[in-house]
Amino acid sequence: MKRKVNLISQLSLFCISLSGIAFQLSLSRNLSGALMQLSYYTLQTNLIVAIVALLNAVFSIRTAKSQITAGLLRIITGGSVLWITVPMTIYHLLLSDRYRP
Question: First and final CA of the chain: distance in angstroms?
Fold first, then answer.
């Protein structure tokens, strides 16, 4: 039961991250504008979160995980949490009261 909940949450995070990236890129008028938006740190971190969520989902399906794989996956997951926390904190502390889309 715990593995199913973990798998569902990881796949949900993957879908949410990809839909956010797709929505942001769809606002561009052309391909070069979309490619330029990929240089933004926020979109890059969302892409990292999507990849790490997919990796976690794939490795949670596998029954036999080695200690090295599990440890490496924990390090990558922790890094992605740190990377996504940086733009969230900067937006909250510096931009939220000034930026009104």
Answer: 41
